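Reopening this ticket.

The earlier resolution said the output was attached, but the attachment link was broken on my side. Pasting everything inline this time so it's all in one place.
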Amino acid sequence: MSKQEKINAHRGSLVIPGGKIGVLLVHSLGGNPVELRFVAQGLARQGYTVYCPLIPGLGGGTDTSGLSSWQDWYAALEAAHDELKTHCDVIIVGGLSAGSMLTLRLARERPSEVDGLLLFAPTIWPNGWAIPLHFNLFALVYHKWSARLLHLRQRAPYGIKDERIRNFVIDSFKSEGRPIEDMFGRGGGLVWEFKSLTRDVKRRLGEIKQHAAIFHPREDDQSDISNAFKLQRELGGVVEMTVLDDSYHMVTLDRQRVYVVDRTIDFTHRLTERIAEAAAVSRMRHRVNAVAAAE
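Inline output:
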């Protein structure tokens, strides 16, 4: 991709130009594209164009009023997908944690324009061992206005098993002068919208036919592995499952991030090779039919 073909990205997004195969990656609820930097850089080294948009409302600090909706998040993802389509012929879409739900909805709504799925610690609902039990009381909240009265906090280890990496992330956040609650807390309105998004996605999982790769920790502190097993059972396409034994929720940052990157690259290579082979067969069949018709 030349400088003249630069992706028009929202401020705070991560863009790495490459070839005609693109990978669109979605950050977590309250997160940002930095969470996906290792994966993005690994894919970029293989020649892929990688775009990690900052999704307004979904990203941390982008909706302090709590007025955005999941439809707003999804519209921003569609716009990012449209932008990447102008540069790439094949697009694989991935998401981390809550971002995986937006990824799945995009795959369902645009089946011919999403060629594969990467799901990193996919979260249908936060139910890991570090989630406080009172979080389940949120199921009794039936209106967004009342949900906005709540502020839900996470507790250590904050999705990162490696203590050195965890401390580095916390220190870098503190250096920005922002309280730790901003990073590991979630407003009730944000959680309400996420709950509404997952409700929409869950009821039509079987319609999602793209080949998918799931990476999920066995001992996820934020999102129990049952989330991944549900997707493995109910998605309509082929699902490859990788269970990680030395990571917590933030699999793209934690101890096994190199393994996750390597497996992601392997999956992407195999998938795009199959797509190229299918396209070649289709072109050949078209030529044969054209010749037959001419005779």
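Reporter confirms the inline version is readable. Strands lie at 14-16, 21-26, 49-52, 90-96, 116-120, 151-153, 185-187, 212-217, 239-244. The longest strand covers residues 90-96.
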